[in-house]
Amino acid sequence: MAQERARTGSRERLVEATRELLWQHGYSGTTPAAIRARSDVGQGSMYHHFPTKVDLAAEALRVSSAEAERSIDAYLDEAPSPGAAVARYLSKPRDGEKGCRFGRLTLDDAVLEDERLRRPVSETLTWYRQRMEALLREGQASGELRPDFSAEAVGATVIAMLQGAHVLARADRSQASYERVIEGALTLLEGLESRR
Amino acid sequence: MAQERARTGSRERLVEATRELLWQHGYSGTTPAAIRARSDVGQGSMYHHFPTKVDLAAEALRVSSAEAERSIDAYLDEAPSPGAAVARYLSKPRDGEKGCRFGRLTLDDAVLEDERLRRPVSETLTWYRQRMEALLREGQASGELRPDFSAEAVGATVIAMLQGAHVLARADRSQASYERVIEGALTLLEGLESRR
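Above: the input entities. Below: the structure tokens describing the complete assembly.
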């Protein structure tokens, strides 16, 4: 039993360490040695739980994705209307330079070339995109938002604005660059409100 | 003289090869050996022209930046109005998955940690951002666009939408994902037009 618990603990520590390292350094920048050092798990135990780096990264992405979806749902539920929920999502405090756990992996050829890594990245970004699309559609149905735009297209653009905000913040090493994009995004979003 | 010409030729071939490889594989993914193979230039000649990979990459970025700014100016000059120029910039045909030569480097720690590489990336993206800001301001001055928004913020958001469109296209390996973002971006841009 004690051994079983210890094994469970090391598995979780490996996944947690990998999640953090993927976020900080990307996939190619994360070495098995760094994962072992951060999780304090030995080589034998690591290979017992995850035979390859891809197995470990795929599990880390699965956990990150499930957690992100849960937390964003709770966050959006507090907005008073669908349009306000989209604005709330854009305005959520974020570390601009650190970037999105998923978006940042799309620049790594090693991720794009392995379907076990690319697919969860794509699926998570698609989930966010469709979440925005559903909110925009709801806003159109309730009359809060104009009926004459494609919720599918604008939903994609909302996610793209966030991803691009991170790109500019990283280039400039500046949180202000991130926030400038969000300010513009909120301005553009206001143009979708029904004209009174 | 013949020797001088040959040397000029190899320098240019090195820079061209580096520009292409940076675009395809990023900075960390580009090896000196790959640059030599692509440019057909030997090791001695390479180190004669560029003592380090950073020197070569910095020069490649300088050339790419100058070329991008020249070509975008010519492209925007054909639009009938400032607002139309912003839309034209967003609609320019692009390979969504290949991405932006500059934006794609912002996810590479090695670029962000070396000011000789990060600065030209930041400066080029800033140049684009300010180009959009100037067009939006012109549109506001002429009455084409609403006076009540920050051209600085929206200019940044226009650039972010493009960068984010590339992120989504890469994640999905899909040009359609790129184009969906652009469609939404153009919709949002329409909301800036003066109400008639």
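Note for the figure: Chain A has a mean pLDDT of 93.
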